[in-house]
């Protein structure tokens, strides 16, 4: 008996449909009244008023939602309607928990955490909410009685793709963990009308189309039109003389935009706690200029509205270059200001003044996107709340902390001073003053060190005068953290080297983690059931006991069951690849997956080169005892990142040639799955055998896909980069296929004037692969297509693709060989899962809470 089967397979059945009709004809009696407020304002929380959690009450609630909220009879309902009705019913349960919690904790809440992030990559929420509320079984039965499978409803939910990749998904995992650990927290971000673009591959070329996740409404959110903050832009600063002879500076913005709150409740594991993700939508204070409209100037009448609302229109898909556009700065300031105004209002309401802010709140900046918070909080404290400058600075530095997510110099945000002066004139003054005081202090401690001053200044002079947002965030924070041990070390040695000398101890490490609810329990119920059987239900709450699996790693019976789960998951992925990529694969083959944003430093190109090498070798000797391999690629390229798009095209070109070649039939398949998103990851992650984590060492800050895949029993082929280093420590390096240059070696190579031709000269395989690709073997329609790409590998080879090629192929060889020894492979897979308990985002968040936020955690 599998003790964990929340989303088992139950087909729609005719009896259920008949039942739904009966219920429609005779609507069910309300089971228990919905929570109501008594005259005293207290919630009547006795059990008769609570929503019942039986399957029949859930069924009735869903039917009521379908009927009265959506206005549809079951006979007319489509999958999307069932999803909406189900989500609304589940939301009622979420709200109930929230109200109960409010009732229980009123006045007793401790320090609040505010997580400011321009991105929250949430994906679907139905399964997460149902799973965390513990209602999965009841819901399945309820829907079955209505003639609907849980997957019919679930798959009709659009992904909330309000993020680009790792950084946004981390924010979503962190929110879920904060709720699971019952840490009082708010997520603050932007409610984009359009999230990350939909990717279509047309003849192998990526094309972007807008996605429209809100087009059928969002059942999880609550619009809060009454929660609205004014956000200013432009205008000028005036000085006002005060009676005591001092002067007060006042910002008179030339333009106003309203930020309107939309709240999505975030339920923690076992429904323990509910926090809120508050996303801001931009609205014009005046929806239209009636005078202009009446004059017949219809465009002009709406112009302000269009300008204001463009702020929350669309997520920037930039992952290739820091978005330089003014709109991006407007987005950053917009949501940061709304968040700070919102939390200050709460502070004043609860504590009576802003003075105790730093004791009562912790504001975490997710990368530099909200770094303007440092200046905005100063402005609000000094200009709006009349706090003295020095005290305001102490409050700001006491409340704010900052997470860095990349060291790539080209990714570090900076804004041109003239743009800042035009858009945020008061903030620019504040930044100048912060900088002056900061540089005075540096000068006092290190006289005559102009290099040091230039390096730590908030204003850079390299490409015109620009405000360096990383430096601003650094000086305004009490802690600055990296996201893996290696990344944090490199932060100390490179981008923040001088800051680390000036402020020793300010930089700390907080290795990333992933939500085990989403990335194990929900996406892999088969494996979760097996783990519960083997280790007991405690594993669902205390993932560190996964280490006990080590005792079972050599047990043939356990291995068999572990492998059976993997096999079923691979069959599901095979179906998806057939339907969505048009590629038929054998689930018995080794599934080798690389799923992440397409970027040169992530080196999908290295994987493609190996694919070509393998293909050529198989073709040359088809009768050899090959390990059948399926290469799975998925990921989006930034729309303007031509090289990344070309790499997608190459993967597709190689796929076309390989998949059509009868000489490698049954040996090699290549699939590029279009439109990678969270939901696709939830199918691929449980099905992977081999996880590609092959970034150029020193360039991937952490990675989190590496964790998801290993937790689900994939073996890692990877470089010693990001959190993969720590995974090797927890799992055992001998259970992984590690290869390639270390971060230090990469630095040395680059300094030594390395060229890819040096690798080509010593590797026949590399030479053949480059000749084939460069010569047009995979692009017969355009022989020159990959000329430049190959030339750059032969020349600078910045990402060390040529340099690492042979080592990578050798590691691939080791993986293929091990796969042929299934007991050994399975044992290693079990050991990978066993070593991953530490990588729960609950552990990450508990570390933030204790060491950065000063918030107690009950564990
Ligand atoms: C931005 C840019 C812009 C300029 C050119 C290259 C480049 C490369 C990456 C980025 C994204 C930077 C922020 C980010 O998403 N970092 C990711 O954060 C994850 C969560 O901490 C972490 O796991 C990934 O390793 C890291 O790339």
TrEMBL record:
It is an enzyme of class 2 (transferase). Its cofactor is pyridoxal 5'-phosphate. PROSITE patterns: PHOSPHORYLASE. SUPFAM superfamilies: UDP-Glycosyltransferase/glycogen phosphorylase. Keywords: Carbohydrate metabolism, Glycosyltransferase, Pyridoxal phosphate, Transferase. Its EC number is 2.4.1.1. It comes from the Bacteria. The keyword Transferase applies. CDD domains: GT35_Glycogen_Phosphorylase (cd04300). Pfam families: Phosphorylase (PF00343). It catalyses: [(1->4)-alpha-D-glucosyl](n) + phosphate = [(1->4)-alpha-D-glucosyl](n-1) + alpha-D-glucose 1-phosphate. Belongs to the glycogen phosphorylase family. Allosteric enzyme that catalyzes the rate-limiting step in glycogen catabolism, the phosphorolytic cleavage of glycogen to produce glucose-1-phosphate, and plays a central role in maintaining cellular and organismal glucose homeostasis. This is Alpha-1,4 glucan phosphorylase. It comes from Roseomonas fluvialis.
């Amino acid at each position: 008996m599998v003790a964990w089967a929340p989303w088992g397979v139950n087909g729609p059945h005719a009896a259920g449909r008949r039942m739904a009709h009966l219920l429609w004809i005779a609507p069910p009696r309300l089971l228990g009244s919905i929570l109501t407020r008594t005259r005293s304002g207290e919630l009547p929380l006795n059990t008769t008023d609570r929503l019942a959690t039986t399957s029949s009450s859930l069924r009735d609630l869903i039917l009521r939602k379908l009927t009265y909220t959506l206005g549809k009879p079951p006979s007319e309902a489509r999958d999307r309607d069932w999803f909406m009705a189900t989500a609304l019913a589940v939301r009622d349960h979420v709200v109930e928990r929230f109200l109960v919690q409010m009732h229980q904790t009123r006045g007793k809440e401790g320090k609040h955490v505010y997580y400011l992030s321009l991105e929250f990559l949430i994906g679907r929420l139905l399964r997460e909410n149902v799973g965390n509320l513990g209602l999965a079984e009841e819901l399945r039965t309820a829907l079955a009685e209505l003639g609907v499978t849980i997957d019919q409803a679930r798959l009709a939910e659009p992904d909330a793709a309000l993020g680009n990749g790792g950084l946004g998904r981390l924010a979503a995992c962190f929110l879920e963990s904060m709720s699971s650990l019952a840490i009082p927290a708010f997520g603050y971000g932007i409610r984009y009308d359009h999230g990350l673009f939909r990717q279509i591959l047309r003849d192998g070329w990526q094309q972007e189309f807008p996605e429209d996740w809100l087009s059928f409404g969002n059942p999880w959110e609550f619009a809060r039109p009454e929660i609205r903050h004014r956000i200013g832009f432009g205008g000028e600063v005036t000085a006002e003389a005060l009676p005591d002879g001092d002067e007060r500076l006042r910002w008179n913005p030339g333009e106003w935009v309203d930020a309107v709150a939309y709240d999505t409740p975030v339920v923690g594991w076992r429904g323990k706690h509910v926090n809120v993700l508050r996303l801001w939508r931009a609205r014009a204070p005046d929806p239209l200029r009636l005078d202009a409209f009446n004059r017949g100037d219809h465009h002009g009448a709406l112009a302000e509205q269009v300008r204001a609302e463009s702020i929350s229109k669309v997520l920037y898909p930039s992952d290739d270059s820091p978005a330089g556009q003014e709109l991006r700065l407007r987005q950053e300031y917009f949501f940061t200001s709304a968040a700070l105004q919102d939390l200050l209002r709460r502070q004043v309401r609860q504590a009576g003044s802003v003075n105790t802010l730093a004791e009562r709140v912790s504001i975490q900046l997710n990368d530099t996107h909200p770094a303007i918070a440092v200046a905005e909080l100063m402005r609000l404290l000094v200009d709006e709340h009349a706090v003295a400058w020095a005290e305001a600075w102490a409050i700001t530095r006491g409340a704010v902390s900052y997470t860095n997510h990349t060291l790539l110099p080209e990714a570090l945000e900076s804004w041109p001073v003239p743009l800042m002066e035009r858009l945020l004139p008061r903030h620019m003054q504040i930044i100048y003053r912060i900088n002056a005081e900061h540089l005075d202090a540096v000068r006092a401690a290190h006289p005559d060190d102009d290099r040091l001053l230039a390096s730590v200044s908030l204003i850079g002079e390299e490409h015109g005068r620009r405000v360096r947002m990383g430096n601003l965030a650094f000086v305004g924070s009490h802690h600055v953290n990296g996201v893996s041990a290696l990344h944090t070390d490199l932060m100390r040695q490179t981008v923040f080297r001088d800051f680390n000398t000036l402020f020793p101890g300010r930089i700390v490490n907080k290795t990333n983690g992933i939500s085990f609810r989403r990335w194990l329990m929900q996406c892999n119920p088969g494996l979760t059931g097996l783990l519960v059987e083997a280790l007991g239900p405690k594993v669902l709450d205390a993932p560190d006991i996964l280490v006990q699996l080590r005792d079972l790693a050599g047990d043939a019976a356990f291995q068999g069951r572990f492998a059976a789960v993997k096999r079923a998951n691979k069959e599901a992925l095979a179906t998806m690849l057939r339907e969505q990529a048009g590629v038929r694969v054998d689930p018995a083959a080794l599934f080798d997956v690389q799923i992440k944003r397409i970027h040169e430093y992530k080196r999908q190109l290295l994987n493609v080169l190996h694919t070509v090498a393998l293909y050529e070798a198989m073709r040359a000797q088809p009768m050899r005892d090959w390990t059948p391999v399926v290469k799975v690629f998925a990921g989006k390229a930034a729309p303007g990142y031509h090289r990344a798009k070309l790499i997608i095209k190459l993967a597709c070109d190689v796929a076309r040639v390989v998949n059509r070649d009868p000489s490698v039939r049954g040996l090699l398949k290549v699939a590029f799955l279009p439109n990678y998103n969270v939901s696709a990851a939830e199918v691929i992650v449980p099905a992977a055998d081999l996880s590609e984590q092959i970034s150029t060492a020193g360039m991937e800050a952490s990675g989190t896909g590496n964790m998801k895949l290993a937790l689900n029993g994939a073996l890692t082929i990877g470089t010693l980069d990001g959190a993969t280093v720590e995974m090797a420590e927890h799992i055992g390096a001998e259970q992984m296929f590690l290869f390639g240059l270390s971060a230090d070696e990469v630095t040395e190579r680059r300094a030594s004037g390395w060229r890819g031709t040096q690798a080509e000269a010593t590797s026949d395989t590399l030479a053949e692969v480059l000749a084939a690709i460069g010569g047009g073997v995979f692009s017969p329609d355009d022989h020159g297509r990959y000329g430049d790409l190959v030339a750059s590998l032969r020349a600078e080879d910045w990402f060390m693709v040529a340099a690492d090629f042979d080592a990578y192929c050798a590691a691939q060889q080791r993986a293929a060989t091990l796969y042929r020894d299934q007991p050994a492979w399975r044992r290693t897979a079990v050991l990978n899962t066993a070593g991953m308990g530490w990588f729960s985002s609950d552990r990450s968040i508990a570390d933030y809470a204790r060491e950065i936020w000063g918030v107690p955690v009950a564990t």
